[in-house]
């Protein structure tokens, strides 16, 4: 009788789907899953250590720069150069380019801010490069340009019949105009950027004093950082990029990636590097790397900020991050050999560009966040045979996170939300980096980041004025 009962239990277990899954999992876990997971753990730990060392190195450099007060831009005698310019009236001719595409909400802000720059009117050209497909909007932008022309500003309104090369194509075509030939410097501002009146006075003198300087880059200041939680989290990531990555690149080997806007280029450096190319979606980084390989030096001015706008919708931010993650990986694939065989720059600079700038920051940083934190660590919980040491699973990621978030102390209380948000975005960034390395579909996808200008602020104010004030609601 007892044998019959046990036989029935065994038969029930055999035909129970849950038990069959458990047995199947047990049969493949040790011989197949465990070796694969252990290998993945070793790879991810190696990448984490690489990222941690890079973060610690940059933290040490920033600490030394701040403690010693020796930022590169502080060694220049700007006041003496300004006095010489005003005394001798030998102002260089400057071109300001504003590329735009259907920028209905912000075109007035950018054109107005650039037109108000303090510089002799006969030595300043404002070039509006409008690739808009909306004919009504084109007319509106042209009317805005005419308004500033009537005020004495030398504004040139340029359009194209196609969007070949996207932003790089527009900038390249703009530099071919006959009135640009005698311009010594060119400044690029995206359509949502609003420079202060003294922007040229705080950038051009650097280039006049040092003929080896090819680029002066300003940092960004976000006008809508407090709009929502997502913009606050974006600010945390970008503040680290400017406060640490750009500053370290400028202070150590005079190289960092051009941000595509709020920067002043020496025209000769652009021509020497081969001009604008549209082979990737990061034409700005492409130009910066090529100019650096030609021996040009870059300077980051951390105390000069230009107002601009952060993407305020997740869809817009996701498209932006795809472009910012896919483009560098694709550029790394295209320029790896060129960087290696270049003879005009030092081995240290080559190492910085290949290892630190591209490999660790543009590829490893995304892969560690996604594969290690989102896949491998949770998988080790399901596979107890794979042991993950606590220092590597907790302390190492915590150290990297704290070093990243320390640049935005005002949002340090949002650290947990920032970690979760970055883990979510790591999926999109890792996928984009792989697409860029393999040159797969969407490698050259270009979606212009939607800008809202003052519309969101106006809508919020209208809603706030309609509803009665309530302390409970505000809280």
Automatic annotation (TrEMBL):
Could you confirm whether the keyword Signal appears in this record? no
Q: How does it sit in the membrane?
A: Multi-pass membrane protein
Identify the EC number(s): 2.4.1.32
**A Gene Ontology BP annotation from the UniProt entry:** cell wall organization
SUPFAM superfamilies, alphabetically? Nucleotide-diphospho-sugar transferases
Protein's cellular compartments: Golgi apparatus membrane
The similarity comment for this entry is: Belongs to the glycosyltransferase 2 family. Plant cellulose synthase-like A subfamily.
The name on file for this protein is glucomannan 4-beta-mannosyltransferase
Q: State the species of origin.
A: Sesamum alatum
């Amino acid at each position: 009788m007892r044998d019959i009962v046990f036989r029935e239990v065994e038969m029930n277990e055999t035909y129970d789907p849950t038990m069959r899954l458990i047995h199947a999992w047990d049969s493949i876990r040790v011989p197949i899953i465990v070796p694969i997971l252990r290998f993945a753990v070793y790879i991810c730990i190696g990448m984490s250590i690489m990222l941690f060392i890079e973060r610690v190195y940059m933290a040490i450099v920033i600490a030394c720069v701040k403690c010693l007060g020796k930022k590169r831009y502080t060694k220049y005698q700007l006041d003496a150069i300004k006095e010489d310019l005003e005394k001798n009236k030998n102002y260089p001719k400057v071109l300001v380019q504003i590329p735009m595409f259907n920028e209905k909400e912000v075109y007035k802000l950018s054109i107005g801010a650039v037109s108000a720059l303090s510089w002799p009117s006969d030595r300043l050209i404002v070039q509006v490069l409008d690739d808009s497909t909306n004919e009504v909007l084109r007319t509106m932008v042209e009317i805005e340009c005419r308004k500033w022309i009537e005020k004495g500003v030398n504004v040139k309104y340029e359009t194209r019949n196609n969007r070949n090369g996207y932003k790089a194509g527009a900038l390249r075509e703009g530099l071919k105009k006959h009135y640009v030939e005698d311009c010594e410097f060119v400044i690029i501002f995206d359509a949502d950027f609003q420079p202060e009146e003294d922007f040229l006075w705080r950038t051009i003198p650097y280039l006049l004093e040092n003929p080896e300087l090819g680029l002066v880059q300003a940092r960004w200041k976000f006008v809508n950082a407090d709009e929502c939680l997502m913009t606050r989290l974006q600010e945390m990531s970008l503040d680290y990029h400017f406060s640490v990555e750009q500053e370290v690149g400028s202070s150590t080997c005079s190289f960092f990636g051009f941000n595509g806007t709020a920067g002043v280029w020496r025209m000769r450096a652009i021509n020497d590097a081969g001009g604008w190319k549209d082979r990737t979606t990061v034409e700005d980084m492409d130009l910066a790397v090529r100019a650096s390989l030609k021996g040009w030096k870059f300077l980051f001015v951390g105390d000069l900020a230009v107002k601009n706008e952060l993407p305020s919708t997740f869809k817009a931010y996701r498209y932006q991050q795809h472009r910012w993650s896919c483009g560098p990986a694709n550029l790394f694939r295209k320029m790896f050999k060129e960087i290696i065989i270049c003879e005009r720059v030092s081995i240290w600079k080559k190492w910085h560009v290949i290892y630190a700038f591209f490999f660790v920051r543009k590829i490893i940083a995304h892969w560690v966040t996604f594969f290690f934190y989102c896949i491998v660590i949770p998988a080790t919980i399901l596979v107890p045979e794979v042991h993950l040491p606590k220092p590597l699973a907790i302390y190492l990621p915590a150290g990297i996170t704290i070093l990243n978030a320390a640049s935005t102390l005002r949002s340090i209380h949002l650290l947990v939300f920032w970690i979760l948000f970055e883990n979510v975005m790591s999926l999109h960034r890792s996928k984009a980096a792989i697409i860029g390395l393999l040159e797969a579909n969407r490698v050259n996808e270009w979606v212009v980041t939607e800008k809202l200008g003052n519309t969101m602020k106006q809508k919020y104010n209208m809603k706030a004025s309609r509803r009665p004030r309530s302390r409970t609601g505000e809280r």
